[in-house]
Amino acid sequence: MPASRQLLSEKACCLHFPRRPLQLLACPTMLSLPSLRVGILTGRRVLAAAGVRAAHGHGGHVAAQEDLSVPMYYDKRSFPLPDTSFCKELDTSQKALKEKEKGSWKQLSNEEKVALYRIKFHQSYAEMTKPSNEWKTVLGGIFFFIGCTALIVWWQRVHVYPPKPHTLTEEWKAKQIKRMLDMRMNPVDGFSSKWDYDKNEWKK
Prior knowledge:
This protein is mainly α. The chain has helices at residues 3-16, 28-31, 33-55, 92-101, 110-120, 125-129, 134-159, 170-182, and strands at 195-196, 201-202.
């Protein structure tokens, strides 16, 4: 095709199909970026609102969280002296008892000494080492599941499994043994070798 004819065809195309503005030729993904940002911000606000509702769901009170940066109290036989006291917030009587503790212990009664001990510790070492009745719960649970399993097996044998074949009855077994002896099966060192054919009884 000559160059002049090619130039004329390009001009004709330009006349029939005018050029689009630059903003209309932009990528669709670029146009959707603002809407994507709006969607992300909206999702974050929804999650934040859901978190606030979950925190204030129980009577409008925020659930208290333990401060893990401070020592925590726990009863453990291998470490019977924890780093912190059992009672962290004392009432008026306990505060008065703690003030009395600073004086002479001869003025403290046995009940007050026990109360001071309970402020510091939740359980004594004897209480921690005392055997519990948890084994009864465990044993009861085991027997419960064994009983349920036995009931299921019984129900299956009665209502699911077919009846036993007649070849398992005692009468059929006796006939089968009699036929094996009549056929003299394994007469050297097998089944028939243990039968005395002269006396018609098992060898002693």
